[in-house]
Automatic annotation (TrEMBL):
PROSITE patterns with a match to the protein in the record: PG_MUTASE
Lineage, broadest ranks: Bacteria, Bacillati, Actinomycetota, Actinomycetes, Kitasatosporales
Organism: Streptomyces shaanxiensis
Transmembrane segments: none
Protein's name in the database: Histidine phosphatase family protein
InterPro entries: His_Pase_superF_clade-1, His_PPase_superfam, PG/BPGM_mutase_AS, PGM_Phosphatase
Length: 219
């Protein structure tokens, strides 16, 4: 299966770098709506057969133009929502306390999945819910699937599951609004990232999940 993981369009909370992860969350800014409107053309060469979105409003608004252009109904699944910020909810991501969010999330991708977000979910729980939606899409028989999801969730899941994406690469490459990560593979055989927001994936090498800024990564 070819899997397109698409970050939602810009939200008001993105402008303020806030860790806004609760359901249903905000809608899109005017720029976010324009970003969403460009997706049908940007993905014109992809033979998308199914479109999944999270339970957060911003993913559904982002996917709407693409779904309309392809004549597809969106499939809403809670499993691909953003990594829950727990006690860090609505804190500025560009503060020391806010940076704990991404530090914890990248620790999950590095294998410390029992670590828990302060007041929130563990890495095992977060990855399992995302895995379940990906597995559902793979079992559907669709050859090309788009999932409109969230920046931290996409980066962490890809770093944890793609054989050619390591934590330093994911940490060093924030995903802009409506940025796309393209993977191929299956839950049984594993995943390989083909492109990251238009760039060829080149892992940065081994490293530990500490100290990376959250600026630009707010959910």
């Amino acid at each position: 299966m070819r899997l397109l993981l698409i970050r939602h369009g810009q939200t008001p909370s993105n402008l303020d770098h806030l860790l806004d992860t609760a359901v249903p969350g905000p809608g899109l800014t005017d720029l976010g709506e324009r970003q969403a409107a460009t997706l049908p053309e940007a993905l014109a060469d992809e033979d998308i057969e199914a479109i999944y979105v999270s339970t957060l409003t911003r993913t559904q608004r982002t996917a709407a133009p693409l779904a309309a252009a392809r004549g597809l109904d969106v499939i809403v699944r809670d499993g691909i929502r953003e990594l829950s910020a727990g006690d860090l909810e609505m804190l500025p991501g560009d503060t020391e306390q806010g940076a704990l969010y991404m530090k914890t999330a990248f620790a999950w991708a590095a294998g410390d999945t029992e670590l828990r977000m302060p007041g929130g979910e563990s890495g095992a729980e977060a990855l399992a819910r995302y895995d379940a939606v990906v597995a559902e899409a793979a079992d559907s028989g669709a050859r090309v699937v788009a999932m409109v999801s969230h920046g931290a969730a996409i980066r962490v899941w890809t770093a944890a599951r793609a054989v050619n994406v390591d934590v330093p690469f994911a940490a060093a490459h924030p995903l802009e609004n409506t940025g796309v990560v393209i993977l191929e593979g299956s839950p049984a055989d594993g995943w390989k990232a083909l492109a990251w927001a238009g760039a060829v994936v080149t892992p940065a090498g081994e490293g530990g999940p500490a100290g990376w800024p959250v600026v630009g990564d707010a959910p």
